[in-house]
Amino acid sequence: MSYQQLHQHFLKISHFKHLSAICDWDQAAMMPAGGNGARSAAMAELSVLIHQQTTAPQLADWIAAAEKETLTEEEKVSLAALKRRWRQANLLPEELVLAQSLANSTCEHAWREQRKNNDWVAFKPNLAKVVELAREEARVRAADSGLSRYDAMLELYEPDMNCAKLDALFGEVKTWLPEFIQRADANQAHKNLLTPTGPFPVAQQKELGLAAMGLLGFDFEHGRLDVSSHPFCGGVPSDVRITTRYDESDFMKALLGVIHETGHARYEQNLPRAWAGLPVGEARSTGIHESQSLFFEMQLARSPEFTQLLAPLAQQILNRAQDPAFTVANLSAFNTRIKRGFIRVDADELTYPAHVILRYEIERALIEGEIEVDDIPALWNEKMQAYLGLSTEGNYRDGCMQDIHWALGLFGYFPSYTLGAIYAAQEFAAATRAIDQLQSKIAAGELGDLFQWLNDNIWSKGSLLSTDELMIAATGEPLNARYFKAHLERRYFSVK
């Protein structure tokens, strides 16, 4: 009886979160700028309401009583997840939740214009307030868990992960990544690569993106595609909202961005329906979530086999049937080119880990109080020069102001991106072993077996398993970087 009360209570909370998610999407994609003040106040009130419901006094008694009830194994896992969510919510005082909601919303909304204007001076005080409150949250969580302050924040996004594991994993990647980038640069210098040249009208790009989403099995009855300043996947499993941004000089940015977000969306759309609205029915972690987007974008979409499907679509929809830049061979080479750039979301898969490791190292030091907001631009520039040979001095727009995450108070999130790439490589290797002639099936557009493997091993599991249990069940072993390294070697250095 008590478990069922908990179940129903958290379903009610999920309905509030549903509204919050759609309001977040609207604020980013549709809302006029003048509506931000009222929307921010309304969202702050809603966040407090969700917090109040998640910390309701009766939940403690219900949890204690439910632990004594006879439950199925899945209900026991669900109860543990409910208890964890309740415990995490109870750590934060209501006034801190409200202050964070207001500060994050204010900072994010102002960031949109401040980034365009390269205005670090105006952005800095807003970010400083967000960091101040994030540090307070980290202090509270660390005191309860016994973890370091950054580990306590990381645990919100990557359960069971910590800085010691990250340092070992990222440290291993850093031992071979610089050489790989140099070798790929050298190999690429000898290739005659044609760059597709625009303009590519937005309407055509959108049509191409929608066609790719259809090819990848996106359920348009339960989702849609829109535009925002920063691409994202939001909404809820029954109503997934993905966004992209268009550049008329480069159609691949939006197309691969759409494919990336479609990976997130397919995961959301196929989470276990029986556990919808409950923590156990959600994605296991942000790293596992990112593994699905990178599985679609990097493992699948940038492969020569999938390019055999994309190239004809691009030729037809963009009216480039006679353009030599749109041949399968050239588009395949173009989609795996290496370019040291400033922008994380536009980075190739070889340089991308450097962008993430840089952010991890800075935000960890920021939350631990080892550096201050004033130190970010110089430290960013120092690490960009060390890792990618690029200077961002004075270029805040393409440097430390380029991402939305810190403006929203999402500290502990960035490691998930490279963890996702490592997970995705390991998952794709397992799928290749499990599915006979997978590469030939991809080239023929026969993707059903691959999606079924993902559904059986990742999507349908929700959070019923720990991350290690999920990876062992799906791939036969816990996470390691060996498959990621092998994938990059095969893609960039094998004889072709």
Short description:
This protein is mainly alpha-helical and 496 residues long.
Spell out the blueprint of helices and strands:
Blueprint (H helix, E strand, L loop, with lengths): L1 H28 L6 H19 L3 H9 L6 H19 L2 H23 L3 H26 L3 H9 L5 H27 L12 H14 L7 E5 L5 E4 L2 E6 L6 H19 L16 H16 L2 H14 L10 H8 L16 H16 L8 H13 L26 H20 L3 H6 L4 H10 L9 H9 L6 H12 L3
Parallel strand pairs: 1-3
Antiparallel strand pairs: 2-3
Can you give the helix content as a percent range? 55-70%
Annotated CATH architecture of the largest domain: Orthogonal Bundle
Mean pLDDT metric: 95
Q: Report the total helices.
A: 20
Largest sheet: 3 strands, mixed
Uncertain runs: none
What's the CATH first level of the largest domain? Mainly Alpha
> In total, how many beta strands?
3
Oligomer: single chain
Order of helices and strands: HHHHHHHHHEEEHHHHHHHHHHH
Give the structural class.
Answer: mainly alpha
- The amount of beta strand, in percent, is under 5%
Stated plainly, the CATH topology of the largest domain is called: Neurolysin, domain 3
The largest beta-sheet arranges its strands as 1-3-2
Can you tell me the overall shape? globular
What's the N-to-C terminus distance? 63 Å
What report would you give on this structure?
This protein has helices spanning 2-29, 36-54, 58-66, 73-91, 94-116, 120-145, 149-157, 163-189, 202-215, 251-269, 286-301, 304-317, 328-335, 352-367, 376-388, 415-434, 438-443, 448-457, 467-475, 482-493; strands at 223-227, 233-236, 239-244. It has 496 residues and is mainly alpha-helical. Helix content is 64%, strand content 3%. The model has no long low-confidence stretch (mean pLDDT 95). Strand 2 and strand 3 form a beta hairpin. It contains 20 helices and three strands. The N and C termini lie far apart (63 Å). It is globular and about 70 Å long. Helix 6 (120-145) crosses helix 7 (149-157). The chain has two domains: 2-157, no CATH class; 159-496, Neurolysin, domain 3 (Orthogonal Bundle), CATH 1.10.1370.30. The chain has a three-stranded mixed β-sheet with strand order 1-3-2, with helices on both faces.
